[in-house]
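Appendix B. Raw example, untouched.
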Amino acid sequence: MEPAETYKGWIIQSQKVFYVETWDANGNHHVAVQNAKTEEEALELAKKWIDRYESKPARTPMDEPRPFGDMIDMPF
């Protein structure tokens, strides 16, 4: 992760993120995987996201979608 900087009163910071695309009966999801070091690790973390996603109670239309996908921030 790069050091944060200030721009017009905003704190901004860039970081390397893998975006994993997944598809289910409801369509396409983009999963942002932050702490993966390799593509393989990103896929494994996305599988864990799917497990958590499927174990949640039914979602309402207000719950989805997030504009930039769901975030995964799992330090391993």
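End of appendix B.
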